[in-house]
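[Q] Does anyone have a clean structure-token version of this?
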Amino acid sequence: MSDEPRLALAHERLEALRRQIARRIVGHHDLINGILACLLSSGHALLEGVPGLGKTLLVKTLSDALHLEFARIQFTPDLMPADIIGTQVVLQDEEGRRHFQFQQGPVFTQLLLADEINRATPKTQSALLEAMEEKRVTVGRTGHALQEPFMVLATQNPIEMEGTYPLPEAQLDRFLLKLKATYPSAGELSEIVDRTTGAPMPAVEPVLNASELLELRELVRSVVIASHVKDYAIRMVLATHAANGHATPMARRYVRHGASPRGLLAIVLTAKALALFAGRINVSFDDLAAAAPPALRHRILLNFEGEAEGIDVEDLIAEVIRETPTVHGKARA
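[A] Here you go.
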């Protein structure tokens, strides 16, 4: 199939998915785009926002619109790794002989909602590390493969809230994007009230199955990124490293650790998904600039001076996007 029919089919499937999500969710357009970009890029998404903004409802709505197995884990301080991965249980056969059998945990699914992930301890949070990176879990000496496609959508409250544990850097780096849920506008609030206090919310129909999703993922990876456009993404990542010659003034002064190579991969994959959303088979500079904030905001660590002065990582990333020159050697406006 040539590019044009494949793009048309992809656009049709994505629009059908968006329509189903919009039956329940009001607003959150950037959040939905970010989740869909993760879905099509084989990545995982971390959704941050105060309680009551509809993060969990959005994930559950997405699960209803997909022909995928879905599981939810409510993270609490007393949750243990075995509650996520599973454990060995002792069974007895008809002849009275006992043997161990692995009882799968909720991670053995295709779409996993890790609700309020930062309310569990770091030990429990780390139970997802191998699953998110390698699509498998190890119990004892035995590895167990997870189903494809596999995606983790985790929600978290801002770390300043009581009863939360900051996610370790290694755990954060496993998320392709960190997305922020913001407060709705007055018009959106009015529509939310109408939808939730009147007639029952409409049902959501599943419109995308596993094989169709895997086809979309292949199409995303086939989106072309020219060498000079890729070079712009590389220089954006290098601009977050304090000791690098491409570093921006804020990065040189306030950054302890810049974005890792995973940050670059996240920018490029997300930009490819955004290009596909726009009906293009090639990545533009604007796609990379739009992908940079959610791909980098959880991968840049401030030094003591940056934390003491209350530097906002969002401002630092905006400076990186603004001052990193494009192929013509000119900074973006």
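[Q] Thanks! Anything notable?
[A] The two ends are 39 Å apart (CA to CA).
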